[in-house]
Structure formats: C-alpha cells, structure tokens
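Researcher: Next entry in the queue.
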Amino acid sequence: MSFASQSHIALPYRILFLYIEPLAALFGTYTTLFHPEPYLLSLSPTATYSSLTYPIYAQIAGHDLLFSWLQAVLLRSTSSVRIWKIVLFGILMCDVLHLYGSYVVLGPEAFFDPRTWRWEEWITFVMTYGPGLLRAAFCLEIGVSQTRATKRS
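Model: Structure for this entry, 153 residues:
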C-alpha cells in the first residue's frame, strides 16, 4: 500500500510507524535474542544475567518481532484508521508497562531526573516516550483526516 492511499494519515505517523519503529523493533529482536546479557543490563543496571532465564528473552524477542510485523506489514496493508488505532493502542499499552518497569528498577528519583540517566536510559526513554506520545496523539486522531477517520474497512 502506498503513501498516497494513506494520505489521510499525517506523514510523520507514516514515517515513524511504517519505517522507523519496525526497524527499531527488528533491532530489538536481534539484540534480545542474540545478546540477552547486554539487553538486560540496559534495562536494569544491577541485574545479573542467567542462561536459565533465556526463554524469557526469546519471548521478548518474539514480542518485538510481532510489533515489527504489525507495523511494517499490517499497517501498510490497510488505510483504515480504526485498524491503525487498534494496533497502536495495543503497543501504547506495552509502552506504559515498559516505562513502569523502568520506574520500578530506577526508583522515582532517578526515573524523573534525566541528569542521572545512563545512555541506556536515554535511548529507552526517547524511544518509548516519543513514539508513545505520537501513538496517543494518533489514537486521539490528531493529524488524521476526519473524513477518512470514520470510514471502516
């Protein structure tokens, strides 16, 4: 499906959700599956990796791969704002839980103080907050043509 058939969806949404995020999710899949220890340490600096927990990392990689597929394939295959909203709201729920996990690990003082963040937190928060805010905006139909937003497919 070309951009022209999705012209009722603002270009920044299409670039982020059809290209940038699917590639980032594929990178996350690779990292989690083949480099679980650095992945863990990027999320929890005091955690200790054990190969006994590898099945959890494989499951997380599957989660990232699904996100990549949903955005790169499913969203490209439809011009339905309703379908886009369903998919993006589901990913937004995951964003909230991801941030909650960071909050629990870092504690409120570090979570809300960017001066204390390691480069890993900067990447995590920028890649979660930014797209998460755009997902929420899309679900509120900000930047979505109202004439096509009500059409169901």
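Model: The mean pLDDT is 90.
Researcher: Noted, moving on.
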